[in-house]
Amino acid sequence: MTAAPYRHRTPGERRAHASAQAAIARALAHTTPPPAPDADEELGAQYPYVTPARARQIRHEIEEARDV
Question: Can you tell me the distance from the alpha carbon of 35 to that of 15, in angstroms, rounded to the nearest whole number?
Fold first, then answer.
């Protein structure tokens, strides 16, 4: 017979678990987020006849028009 999957923890195990969770949270707070997906690739998939350079140019033109 196997042991129960959720056995009771001792106070020391609880402290160790809380300490590990706090260390993980601190480490994650200092990591950089993953890079955002490239919009040029998405545009290229929608319009296969548009080159990535042209897609980038179009995106910059749109962004400049929004800023004005």
Answer: 35
Decide if 52 is inside a domain: yes
Answer whether 52's CB lies under 8 Å from 38's CB.
no
Give CA–CA dist 56/68, Å, rounded. Answer: 19
Q: Is the full-model pTM beyond 0.70?
A: no
Give, as one character, the DSSP assignment of residue 40. H
Compute the distance between CA of residue 56 and CA of residue 60 in angstroms, rounded to an integer.
6
Here the tokens at position 49 are 């006849």
9 lies in some domain: no
Mean pLDDT of the chain: 81
In a domain, 44, yes or no: yes
